[in-house]
Amino acid sequence: MAALHELTATQLAEAFRSGEASSVEATQACLDRIAAVDGAIHAFLHVDADRALATAAAVDRRRAAGEPLGPLAGVPIAVKDAFTYEGAPTTCGSRILEGWIPPYTATVVQRVLDAGMVVLGKTNMDEFAMGSSTENSGFGPTRNPVDPERIPGGSGGGSAAAVAAGEAPLALGSDTGGSIRQPAAVTGTVGAKPTYGGTSRYGLVAMASSLDQPGPCGRTVLDTALLHAVIGGHDERDSTSIDAPVPPVVEAAQSGDVRGLRIGVVRELGGEGYAPGVEQRFHEAVERLRGEGAELHEVSCPHFGLALAAYYLIMPSEASSNLARFDSIRYGLRVGDDGANSVEQVMRLTRGQGFGAEVKRRVILGTYALSSGYYEAYYGSAQKVRTLIGEDFARAFEAVDVLVSPTCPTTAWKLGERVDDPLAMYKADLCTIPVNLAGNCAASFPAGLAPEDGLPVGFQVIAPVLADDRLYRVGAALERVLGNQGGAR
């Protein structure tokens, strides 16, 4: 048997059932791996070793007593630092929340715990999920385990890097404009953005409430589907939660049958601005799916070209409202509270020191877009574009079952390469943003390595609302015919 930290979640679960390994042994192997490599990768902001080992020991005792356990019981998992976990620091990658310990646990984290999984700790992220590279963290960047001189994607680069580096077999992320899928693409892992409302946002620190969605990241399609099944489902504490059964994602991942499936290649998500190696691997993957019995069609979604502009008005507008709560009064950092400053001055000093440059940029942009005299011209117009994008999806799904595209126009770029060029950074999300605007589900699967630089390429699959199982059907077929890339372990 391979080293425990190298095993997939499914392989670990089988080792637990057969008695070849215990959850304590697997958890310790992941903790040892974190200690060995995370100084270079910086995937984690907080490692909860004592609690993880105690949780693992409790699962082992339950297994020894013959208690019925879920399929992922005892499997370690990393959690993006945007989710609250009672007793563990939650910073959202921001200095303004440094040291804050939440008194409650996010629904998706609680469901992971209820399934007997072992939370290893909290992973690094772009501050308040604002970024595409995890270079905007207030605690320093994460590096890509495939090539440590390159970015691991963002905003959930810490979660994807932890999985790719063998520090955790599974991770939780959140996706506002591609923050699960894009890191998965550039690290050679699997990442899914469920249908909006399909996973609970309760306990996910909000960036843009109409766009944010928790989702799973793993090394294989089946692992990711198993985690999706654990965290999905209705939650009465989330007003946007859909009261419907979780789609049969695990069965789809185990099947991978795409015979007769109508696959639409989105014309607008390719061409100029896309790296040749990315397009080459994408089209090769499409042809392999044809060989598996899928039907291929070209589909036009004409308003997708406006998605980036619409997103960067809607998202900052919602973010500026959500981040207003960080006022230095209720919780978090407080600067200048020495009696010499007014409340307004303390708030100004705190936000000036606690927020990073990208957060300030987006708050200013969003506040401007919502201001009197500009609301309808900017925010209102962006919402109209959002409606048109939703109509593009609706028309497309009348003709095909899923849509496909590259996940990211390029492979991972070098650290620092786009830090001073926000527009270049934003363009990394060209393919992923339309899904969040419409509320559909989507996932990124490994499609091989780009020939020009040997870096991972992601293949995005998009499905209609509550058709999340279709993502895993296609992903499983791809994994079967292309092999699993599995990150840099």
Question: Topology of this protein?
Answer:
Layout: H1 9-18, H2 23-41, E1 44-47, H3 49-64, E2 76-80, H4 107-114, E3 118-123, H5 157-164, E4 170-174, H6 181-187, E5 190-193, E6 214-218, H7 221-231, H8 249-255, E7 262-266, H9 276-291, E8 295-299, H10 307-322, H11 343-354, H12 357-370, H13 376-399, E9 402-406, H14 422-426, H15 433-438, E10 441-449, E11 456-463, H16 468-482
Parallel strand pairs: 2-3, 2-4, 7-8, 7-9
Antiparallel strand pairs: 1-3, 4-6, 5-6, 5-10, 9-11, 10-11
What features would you describe in this structure?
It is globular and about 65 Å long. It is an alpha/beta fold and 489 residues long. It has a domain at 4-256 and 468-482: Amidase signature (AS) domain (Amidase signature (AS) enzymes), CATH 3.90.1300. Helix 2 (23-41) runs antiparallel to helix 3 (49-64). It has an eleven-stranded mixed sheet with strand order 1-3-2-4-6-5-10-11-9-7-8, with helices on both faces. The protein has helices at residues 9-18, 23-41, 49-64, 107-114, 157-164, 181-187, 221-231, 249-255, 276-291, 307-322, 343-354, 357-370, 376-399, 422-426, 433-438, 468-482; strands spanning 44-47, 76-80, 118-123, 170-174, 190-193, 214-218, 262-266, 295-299, 402-406, 441-449, 456-463. The chain contains 16 helices and eleven strands. A hairpin with a 6-residue loop joins strand 10 (441-449) and strand 11. The mean pLDDT is 96. The longest helix has 24 residues, at 376-399.
Fourth CATH level, the homologous superfamily of the domain at 4-256 and 468-482: Amidase signature (AS) domain
What's the architecture of the domain at 4-256 and 468-482, going by CATH?
Alpha-Beta Complex
Give Rg in angstroms.
21 Å
| Span between termini | 15 Å
CATH topology of the domain at 4-256 and 468-482: the name is Amidase signature (AS) enzymes
In what range is the share of β-strand residues? 5-15%
For the biggest sheet, the summary is: 11 strands, mixed
Task: Summarize the amount of helix as a percent range.
Answer: 25-40%
CATH class of the domain at 4-256 and 468-482: Alpha Beta
Number of strand elements: 11
Structural class: alpha/beta
Identify low-pLDDT runs: none
Average pLDDT: 96
Note the total helix count. Answer: 16
Reading the helices and strands in chain order gives HHEHEHEHEHEEHHEHEHHHHEHHEEH
Shape: globular
Arrangement of strands in the largest sheet: 1-3-2-4-6-5-10-11-9-7-8
